[in-house]
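USER: My hope is that you can spare some time for a protein that puzzles me. I am handing you a single protein, as its sequence and its fold in token form. Walk me, if you will, through where the backbone shape changes along the chain. The protein I mean follows directly.
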Amino acid sequence: MLIATVTDLMPATTSSPPAEDADNALARLASKGDMMAFEALYRRHVGRVHGVITRLVGGAGARAEDLAQEAFVRAWQALPSYRFESAFGTWLYRLAVNTALMELRSRRSQPFTDSGEDVFDDIGTPDSAGHATALSRDLEQAVATLPSRARAVLVLHDVEGWKHEEIATELDMAVGTSKAQLHRARRLLRTRLGEHA
């Protein structure tokens, strides 16, 4: 009779490197002009890059897509100077956030024309399967309607895990202002989600 334990069934070594090691290996190849390596990096990270940009710019679908592409173009251009001091993913997401923040800064100088309230129109309506709209969709839509600075602080702090000092530096505001914007964003979200529950 053969009795196997869990450790007997596990391979002695794993054949696939951790994600960070794989990213760094691909980034080294891409920094030397390897388009296939960069395409692999793109496929590995496009979802999160697009997600953070979408949340930061308020759900502007086509514009978020353009900004995600712009972030990857910037990454391709900056790869030769990437020093591998941090994980590639960290470097890329910081670059994506900066791309979105530049968009938000440029919007400040433009007149605001859309209140964004129309995103609430379909909350609670049945989807194609006859189910109510998911809470995550409601939350994403509510986040999209927040004022841009409050939304940026909320996304950077609560979603991306940045510290208030980092947010203050990136958004050119005082640490106290960052904390106040986070409080404001959370309060507005509670109100908006409560109104449309």
Observations:
- Residues 1-16, 111-133 have pLDDT under 50 and may be disordered.
- The CA atoms of residues 77 and 92 lie 12 Å apart.
- The first helix runs from residue 6 to 9.
- The two ends are 60 Å apart (CA to CA).
